[in-house]
Amino acid sequence: MKYTISGFMNVWNVKSQGYLFIQAIEATLPICDEFLISDGYSTDGTWEELVKLQKKYPKIKLYREKWVLDKKTPLLSLADSANKVRKKCKGDYILYVQANEIIHEKSIKTIKKLPEMYPTAEVFNLPFNMIYGPNFFMYTEYRTRFARNLNYINVIQDSWSLGYSYNNYLNRFKITLNFFICHFIFNLFNPKELQKLFSMIFMSIVKIGFTDTYRVQFINLQEPIYRYSPLTPEAVIKKLEGHSLFWNESVNAKLSSQNKIKEFLGAKHLPTIGLKAKDYAVKVYKTDKKHFWEKMTAYYKKNEPYTLGDIKKMFEPLPLEKHPKIMQPLLRKSLLELSK
User: Fold this and answer.
1) Considering the chain, what is the average pLDDT of its residues?
2) What pTM did the predictor assign?
3) CATH architecture entry for 5-164+215-231+308-338
4) Residue 116: its H or E element
5) Do 107 and 121 contact (CB within 8 A), yes or no?
6) CA distance 104 to 108
């Protein structure tokens, strides 16, 4: 059976922030039958670059949607903007890629065959290598980015992943509850059947609250998807300035429930990339630009104690040949500039 795949991405002023959006798009196109990109009326040349790219690749479909940020929960507004373009996807499956994520050429065939490999699955968790600067490996984590094109699967939280909508869980709970109420009444005077029923209730709660193995698959790719931070100090500062619009104490407080989820998964707190990191980056850039990456990696080791990986191995250089081929020329150039 032939399946169609819709890739999608939303962007806003990503060129000036050092996002590798052109490479991200070109690396994803071989998987997709169509690739939808929504631009939030960028003013830094991002839109113009996208128009050029569309002329080269007919699969690309461009849209412009103004980003409306809720001052109380700006991070959650990012998911709203992503879902506007997600709703336009026409494929049987959707692939959500952000502007700094590069799919490795060795993994393209596997991702494309996932519908055939797991025909009953609805969502797929894919591995991501987190890369800081031009060549520093941080850790690997899984994100839900490939899924069936079902109306109850959308971009969630701060737009970092795909997931089930709240209404889907609510409907499943109602159906399950009605089923067990009927069976409870019918078997009220049958102890053995009631024991079986309570066992079924427990397992159903587990499935509703967490995942069904046939619906959710964790995939080991030949190579993880590579998620890059900016490759130059200037772009790092520009990106941190953009992040400071979203990360603040009030938002972190409102996302306390997300903190708890992160703790359950192994990360003991959310990254607080904001004004402090930006101010420190600016200071290092002005006073000791030559050692910018060395000092910034030391800063994050001290202030961002991720538990998703071995802290001792974090920020170790990754061999150039391990990276996606589309990224190697850029990385080689960045590393050459570092050595000057």
Assistant:
1) 79
2) 0.78
3) Alpha-Beta Complex (3.90)
4) helix 108-117
5) no
6) 7
